[in-house]
Amino acid sequence: MPTLLEVQRAMRAAIIEDDPAALVGALSDGIGPDRLDIYRNTIFVGLTRALRLAFPAVERLVGAEFFEGAADIFIREHLPQAAYLDQYGDAFPEFLRQFPPAASLTYLGDVAQLEWAVNRALHAPNVKPLQIQELAEIALDDQETVSFLPHPSLGLIYSEYPADNIWRAVLSQDDEALAAIDLSAGPVFLLVERANENVEVTRMQETEWCFLKALCQGDSLLDAMESARALDAASLLAQHLMAGRFVGFRYENRNFELQMSECKE
Length: 265
Known about the structure:
265 residues; alpha+beta; three-stranded antiparallel sheet; 11 helices; disordered C terminus
């Protein structure tokens, strides 16, 4: 008698890889092709719909038929790793960058990356931002070693193309604006964040973007400031704190994290 794992693998091969013969011998009362088609259709339709919801501009750029074909291939190679479909699709931007039929749309992967950051910000848990006064407990000797925890809705996107302009023009169905976009006008440095229940996409100066990226990736305040000597780093840090872009801080093996209304991803 096959083990449960063997049956699960046979079922996966039958549904995802379209190999019903894999179930022969795995189940005493084998499942017929019609029933397998029902399972397969349910899975692929559901996951394709999740991708459509996360990447509406990408679908409009390539058309529904192309998108569905790309999604079909992507799904077979990237099955969900979590039960929440709003978390499905993080690998889709890189898939599109490597997808030969989309090679002529060199900006497609960047637009997809921006859309995924927007989707991620939209579904990020609600977290109480770090308050400036909470930093008062940091001793003077520890201030240079402090690092910050970014808000889970925050995303930093670098694109060689004006991905934000393409994204906005496509979603607004503004063909005139889309035709006027200069693909060589990049690169752009984008901040994606949820503010007042809306997701905002903002362009930043490269140096300011790099400073914020250093802070968000856990660099110490001293290291981040060293890499941004041309900036008024103290003022920028205050602006980020006032905007609620951090939820906690760490220093010298100690953590201070504000209570979250939901668990972080």
